[in-house]
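Incident log, structure service

09:12 report received: a user says their structure output differs between two submissions of the same chain.
09:20 pulled the input from the user's history:
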Amino acid sequence: MSTRRSPQQRKRGLAAHVISYVVVNLAQVVVWRLFTPKHFFWPLYSLGVWGIGLAWHIRAVCSPSRRIPHSPSQRD
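09:34 re-ran on a clean worker, output below:
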Protein backbone atom coordinates (compact mmCIF):
# COMPACT_ATOMS: atom_id res chain seq x y z
CA MET A 1 0.00 0.00 0.00
CA SER A 2 1.42 3.34 -1.05
CA THR A 3 1.17 6.41 1.19
CA ARG A 4 2.28 8.89 -1.47
CA ARG A 5 -0.25 11.49 -2.44
CA SER A 6 -0.77 12.95 -5.89
CA PRO A 7 -0.06 16.66 -6.42
CA GLN A 8 -3.81 17.26 -6.71
CA GLN A 9 -4.44 15.61 -3.33
CA ARG A 10 -1.64 17.63 -1.76
CA LYS A 11 -3.11 20.87 -3.12
CA ARG A 12 -6.59 19.97 -1.83
CA GLY A 13 -5.11 19.29 1.60
CA LEU A 14 -3.35 22.64 1.54
CA ALA A 15 -6.56 24.40 0.48
CA ALA A 16 -8.42 22.80 3.40
CA HIS A 17 -5.64 23.91 5.76
CA VAL A 18 -5.75 27.52 4.47
CA ILE A 19 -9.56 27.68 4.70
CA SER A 20 -9.60 26.33 8.26
CA TYR A 21 -6.81 28.75 9.25
CA VAL A 22 -8.72 31.74 7.91
CA VAL A 23 -12.13 30.74 9.32
CA VAL A 24 -10.93 29.81 12.81
CA ASN A 25 -8.64 32.79 13.22
CA LEU A 26 -11.23 35.19 11.83
CA ALA A 27 -13.71 33.83 14.39
CA GLN A 28 -11.15 34.40 17.16
CA VAL A 29 -10.55 37.98 16.04
CA VAL A 30 -14.32 38.62 15.99
CA VAL A 31 -14.68 37.20 19.52
CA TRP A 32 -11.74 39.31 20.70
CA ARG A 33 -13.22 42.44 19.09
CA LEU A 34 -16.69 41.88 20.55
CA PHE A 35 -15.71 40.96 24.11
CA THR A 36 -12.19 42.22 24.93
CA PRO A 37 -11.17 44.95 22.45
CA LYS A 38 -9.28 46.97 25.07
CA HIS A 39 -7.20 44.02 26.25
CA PHE A 40 -4.20 42.29 24.72
CA PHE A 41 -4.75 40.90 21.21
CA TRP A 42 -4.77 37.25 22.29
CA PRO A 43 -5.57 35.77 18.82
CA LEU A 44 -1.99 36.68 17.99
CA TYR A 45 -0.83 33.39 19.52
CA SER A 46 -2.82 31.12 17.24
CA LEU A 47 -2.24 33.36 14.23
CA GLY A 48 1.50 33.11 14.77
CA VAL A 49 1.96 29.50 15.79
CA TRP A 50 -0.57 28.07 13.37
CA GLY A 51 0.80 30.42 10.72
CA ILE A 52 4.22 28.82 11.08
CA GLY A 53 2.68 25.38 10.56
CA LEU A 54 0.76 26.67 7.55
CA ALA A 55 3.94 28.17 6.09
CA TRP A 56 5.68 24.78 6.37
CA HIS A 57 2.70 23.10 4.72
CA ILE A 58 2.80 25.62 1.85
CA ARG A 59 6.53 25.05 1.49
CA ALA A 60 6.09 21.28 1.40
CA VAL A 61 3.38 21.44 -1.26
CA CYS A 62 4.88 24.13 -3.47
CA SER A 63 8.54 23.14 -3.42
CA PRO A 64 9.80 20.59 -5.92
CA SER A 65 10.31 17.08 -4.64
CA ARG A 66 13.83 16.29 -3.48
CA ARG A 67 13.46 12.53 -3.72
CA ILE A 68 16.09 10.80 -5.78
CA PRO A 69 14.60 8.09 -7.96
CA HIS A 70 15.90 4.60 -7.29
CA SER A 71 17.74 2.85 -10.04
CA PRO A 72 16.43 -0.62 -10.95
CA SER A 73 19.43 -2.26 -9.28
CA GLN A 74 18.72 -0.72 -5.85
CA ARG A 75 16.36 -2.34 -3.36
CA ASP A 76 14.75 -0.94 -0.22
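09:41 both user submissions now match this output. Likely a transient worker issue. Closing.
09:42 reviewer note: The two ends are 15 Å apart (CA to CA). The mean pLDDT is 88.
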